[in-house]
Amino acid sequence: MSDTGQRDDTATDGVGDWAGNPYASRMVEYTPYAVALGMRFVTSSAGRGEILLPWREDLVGQDGTDILAPGVLTALIDHTCGLAIMAGLGFEAAPATLDLRIDHMRPAAPRASVTCSAHVYRATRTIAFLRAEAWDVSPDDPVAAAQAAFTLNRRSVK
Amino acid sequence: MTAAVDLDAILNSSPFARFLAIAAHADERGVLATMPVRDQLVGNVMLPALHGGCVASFLEIACLLQLAREVGTGAPARAINISVEYLRPARRETTFARAQIRRLGKRVAVVHAEAWQQDEGKPVCLLQSHLRLPAGLTAE
After folding, report:
1. Residues spanned by the domain of A70
2. DSSP β-bridge partners for residue B99
3. Is residue A141 part of a domain?
4. CATH architecture of the domain with range B7-132
5. pTM, whole model, 2 decimals?
6. Nearest Cα to Cα of residue B54 among B5, B87, B21
7. pLDDT, tens digit, for every residue of A101-132?
8. Which DSSP letter does residue A95 get?
């Protein structure tokens, strides 16, 4: 919360002790399901991640629509949340999704690729709370918004 | 309420359902959906475990199939939102799912689904969804 009482969408509280991980992109490049869907690493920093998912014919939800299936976005959002955590904690953690809630505001445009950006807005020693958005053309006009909680499974926290 | 819908035709009309190689048949309890294991579906090579994203997608499709069976049309419903809970890692095994319509309104259905592997009593993943019904239904 900022002192105006409004939610700060850019805050990343609790990641100050996260070391950072220069190899975070490997999580996109070497995870079989991320590779199978064609995900491409865009950028990451401690508590933040961004992944692009190029449009592909076999990932369409319904014949004749040319629109990516909502389930493809679910995987993209889940993986981008994981990236935001791994980009901060690296191999110190083995994060696992506890829950993920996604609002589908509108369908993506036909034949449109989708980008997802996720950030940890609050982390404790054991849990990370994330928000994520996915868009086709502009981040200002998202196709989906999500909120997730991950257990961090940090090796140093018993 | 059940109606004759061709589950195979619904699955075949979805490239992504074909990508996941999902199969389904109806029995006395409703639609039983199956997702065969494949190396491509792995999300964690260390455990190893299936990617949470593909298990959630599988449950979304299970919801659509059960809804189609109950409203009697293959016309696709659209997800308004979903909420997924991951209870335990999904192993490199065949995964099963069933969905249940908790409310069928005029425009929106509330559908819950569960995925399990060897033991239906130990679900790996739960999903709740609000689905916008296809236009032109006379449900309720």
Report:
1. 26-151
2. B113
3. yes
4. Roll (3.10)
5. 0.94
6. B21
7. 999 999 999 999 999 999 999 999 999 999 99
8. -
